[in-house]
Amino acid sequence: MAREPTLLDRQRRPSAPPPLDWLTLADAFEASCLLRCMPPPAGTRPARAADPGPTPVVEFNREDAAQRMRQLLERLGVPVAHEFTIGGLRRRYELHRLQVGREHQLRYARLVEAGWRQGRRELLAAPVSGASAPRRVWIPRLAEAAWRSALLAGGRHVRRHILGIRLTDRELAAVLIRSAALLGVPAELRPGTGCFLVSVAAGPDRLRILHRTTLAPASAGQPA
Q1: What top-level branch of life does the organism fall under (predicted)?
Q2: CATH number of the domain where residue 149 is located
Q3: Is residue 85 within a helix (H) or strand (E), and if so which, with residue range?
Q4: Side by side, which strands form the sheet with 188-191?
Q5: What is the pLDDT of residue 193?
Q6: Count H helices, E strands: the chain?
């Protein structure tokens, strides 16, 4: 009669990767938010609404968004090729295409996916009080990174009374609402046609978000 397997006989599951350090997390989380603002380029993979994982190619229609993404990935040890084209006839537009080389795609995917999971978890679970000193410093930085990404790469919806961002990613919209609260700004979430609109009021709230997401000029030898 065969004995029943014991706990020691069971195959051990692979251990989870260690969490990212705060500096790496901030860059990886911001890169993941930039990606979530943009649809994947046509033909890069089958459309899967439940799997917004990173693709090795991403396209931006704004140079500052592309340059920020390139800066973040290079700080993470993921070099990218940057192609720039101008299209359109009557209405001209810019297209900035970033592509990760095959040899760096695994590291890129792991960092971006870990950055999103860990950063989202930190923001949504951030305690109102009693946080450790590192968390008191870095949680607001993650909140700033989320809004900076949305302002760079999301669909801006600016009116006299609001500063709004159109997004198709529900989870990123929820992260922006939480991030605004952590920055001391109330934000609203409204469903739209095929998208979500996250907005803050004009005036002090808008100015606070813009001030907190503006990068200071980098000093010599130090990243922004």
Answers
A1: Bacteria
A2: 3.10.28.10
A3: strand 80-87
A4: 155-158, 162-167, 196-201, 188-191
A5: 81
A6: 6, 7
Tokens representing residue 29 in the block = 């989380």
Q: How many residues does the chain have?
A: 224
Q: Is residue 165 part of a domain?
A: yes
Q: What is the pLDDT of residues 156-210, one digit of tens each?
A: 888 889 999 999 999 999 999 999 999 999 999 998 788 899 999 999 999 999 9
In angstroms, the Cα distances linking 58 to 19, 71, 79 are 26, 14, 13
Flag whether 220 is in a domain: no
- H or E element, residue 124: helix 105-124
Instruction: Give me the mean pLDDT over the 94-123 stretch.
Output: 95
Task: Grade residue 46 by pLDDT with cuts at 50, 70 and 90.
Answer: very low
Tokens of 5: 């397997």
Number of domains in the chain: 1
Question: Which residue, 117, 199, 192, is CA-closest to 156?
Answer: 199
Kindly report, residue by residue over 137-156, the tens digit of the pLDDT. 999 999 999 999 999 999 88
Does 83 reside within a domain?
A: yes
- Residue 10 resides in a domain: no
Domain hosting residue 175, numbered range: 20-39+52-213
